[in-house]
Amino acid sequence: MREIKIGLLGFGTIGTGVVKVLQDNAQLLQDRLGAKLTLARIADLDIQTPRAVTVAPELLTTDADAILSDPAIDLVIELIGGYEPARSFVLKAIANGKHVVTANKALLALHGAEIFAAAEAKGVDVYFEAAVGGGIPIISAIRENLCANRFTSLFGILNGTCNYILSRMTNDGDDYGAVLKDAQELGYAEADPTFDVEGIDTAHKLAILISLCFGTRVRFKDIHTEGISNISALDIHFASQFGYRIKLLAIGKNENGQIEARVHPTMIPDNYPLADVHGAFNAVRLVGDFLGPAMLYGRGAGMDATASAVMGDVMAISRDMLCGVAGRTPALGYVPEAIKDLAIKPMDDIVSQYYLRFAADDKPGVLSQVSGILGKYEISITSMIQPERQIGGGVPIVMMTHDAKEANVRKALAEIDALAVIKEQSRFIRIENELG
Questions:
Q1: pTM exceeds 0.90, yes or no
Q2: Each residue's pLDDT tens digit, 55-103
Q3: Is residue 15 marked as binding?
């Protein structure tokens, strides 16, 4: 029976999960593949700390080159994360003729084009299912099963930390700071949560999904990115009164060859399936011209779910190896010469509905001043709530708008905030009523 040898870079949480799958399901994998998968070497800077799995000591090394330069190793799994040395390790593995499986969304969002070009030139594959959505098979679905579709939009809840925080704030009514502290204590959030809560992690994943869906290159820095740290329990309370829930949403749209690429807190109707994605779960909603709408849902992070996705890629590459082929499916689902440089729509040109919240003096004429400025910038109101209780030095005025241009909303809010009757900076949240 043929043997396929694997080298693992990174023996942290996900690496431990991969070893667990290889050990616990060895016979299942062999029965499905018709070949034996052998873990030949594991490289990590820390090979002393006990893991939840037991491996032979001779498999462990602190020298990544012991894997990258070993001609007996067929496939390298990169799970160290970050930009460097991950980029250098992946490129060296490719240069040495090894296939690569990675879960590193940050690496691919910034250096994917370089890595995919190197792999194509060398005739090896780079698979990355675990980079987006944890255990959800969204990459393979777009690249293979749904490849006959021209996608018009994608909407994703792609960060379990943010979704856990917003779910807790919605269900329990707690403030952001208190829930974040709980999330850190439970292990859902890092000690420094910036990467997650400011939307950076989600934007990395959106960059990959946009390339797959629309056949274009999108630079991470061109994705408008906002996080959830400014969302208050008050905003969540008012959203629920209007029949909405707030989610950190990754949004990609292709409108006549112009791409919308944005990550920000978004209000969606509470009867939409995406609104029912709670806790650390992820979901992606796609709209294709023949498929119509479809949503994939599942665990977006964690040792087991992510290891499942990694091993799915290992199995896919191994099956191709057994058939003597590589490059059967292009990395981004398009042959490289067909990938286009499409324009990214500036945020100022985005048209959306908006939730607006002001804190104002409780006196006659305030509402007319605010409404007058909104009307000046062609922003019309669909509904309004004006509680009598005072909050933070002013009485809240909460409005929902019809479609308005982002640039006009920002100009209007700047002018409103300059009024003497306004007691704190105005807040706005974009609304998506038509997910596709």
A1: yes
A2: 999 999 999 999 999 999 999 999 999 999 999 999 999 999 999 999 9
A3: yes
Residue 21 has a CB neighbour count (10 Å cut-off) of: 21
Report whether 427 contacts 265 (CB < 8 A): no
At the top level of CATH, the class of 3-134+303-338 is alpha beta
Question: Cβ contacts of residue 383 below 8 Å, gap of 6+?
Answer: 242, 399, 400
Q: Is 363 a catalytic residue?
A: no
286-330: pLDDT as tens digits: 999 999 999 999 998 889 999 999 999 999 999 999 999 999 999
Q: Is 58 helix (H, G, I), strand (E, B) or coil?
A: helix
Whether 381 has a binding-site annotation, put simply, is: no
* Catalytic annotation, pick one of 5, 98, 205, 345: 205
Q: Is 11 annotated as a binding residue?
A: yes
The dotted CATH code for 349-431 is 3.30.70.260
From the candidate CATH numbers 3.40.50.300, 3.10.180.10, 3.40.50.10140, 3.30.360.10, the one assigned to the domain spanning 138-299: 3.30.360.10
Is there a binding annotation on residue 13?
yes
| Cis previous bond, 265, omega within 30 | no
